[in-house]
Protein 1
Amino acid sequence: MLEQRCTWSPGHKIIIATASWLGLEFQLRGPAKVFRKNGS
């Protein structure tokens, strides 16, 4: 995994980092919205 990342271009690293960050955002916001709906 790490070896492949080192060979990728900076552009791909940015895209992957953004995609992974968005994935974390959805994982954090998804359950939060569900809890808010259940709470209220």
Protein 2
Amino acid sequence: MQRKYFSKETLDLSQRKFLNKTLKIYSLNLELDMHGLLRLERRFHFSDLDVGEKHPRLLPNKDRYSELAILHAHNKLFHAGVEATLAQVRERFWNLIGRQCAKSILNECFLCKKIHRS
């Protein structure tokens, strides 16, 4: 999935090149893991958290997997709002426009629409 959306960035990082400053992901501190996945380097490097929590994987914006991750978190939290859902997703993944994606997906939730309508 990342290779489809971030192939040039993955190649540049694997060859120890710098990312183009015009890219949206330039400001993120990205690293390639041993499987070739783009992960964020965060300040939790020396914590006892597992690798997925310390270094979340980068998700593309308009991908079905990103939508499913947000929807799964929303359902897991019993149809919580955007902020709680996004916090749950960001434990493992990072989406560049996460809030925007979460809002659009949660606005389509049938159960939430039904509850808020009544």
Protein 3
Amino acid sequence: MACLLRANEVRGNATRELRLRRVGARDAVGCGAPRQQGRGGVAADVRPGYATNVRSQEQDTVVVVLRGEGALRFRPNHTDHVSPAPFESTPFRANSTVIIPRNTVHQLVNSSKKRLQFLHIFGKPPIRFREFASWEEAQGKKVFPGPFDRKCLPGSFFGGHRASPSQDM
């Protein structure tokens, strides 16, 4: 099950300033950005009304939301990739931290009118993904090498697409 932490839930000296080094062009993070292999993460920028592809990966993932708001859609307890299950949705906003367990089918949706910016942090590459054409698909398609090595749709992260009206919140 995915976990959502909000900034006001972190107490004491458990946090510290995170310095980011800018890489590549402003809108070229995620797909088409300079390769981040070996760095364990990537900065992402999703336009209003867009979403990442429905996917899962073989590693735990942490998403730190820097700006904007949206929702994490995920299939709870779905690790076998055998049968589709309906997705659940959890809203997030700037200063939220989302923890996504390995093999959890998930999607990040920008539901605001501003850009959604976040850090997508994962373990040491290589990372093997499964991409799903829709929430109804059960098996998904294995993706390796990962999406950092491919060209994507303009203005999107990991080949994201405009969020489907039937899936809007």
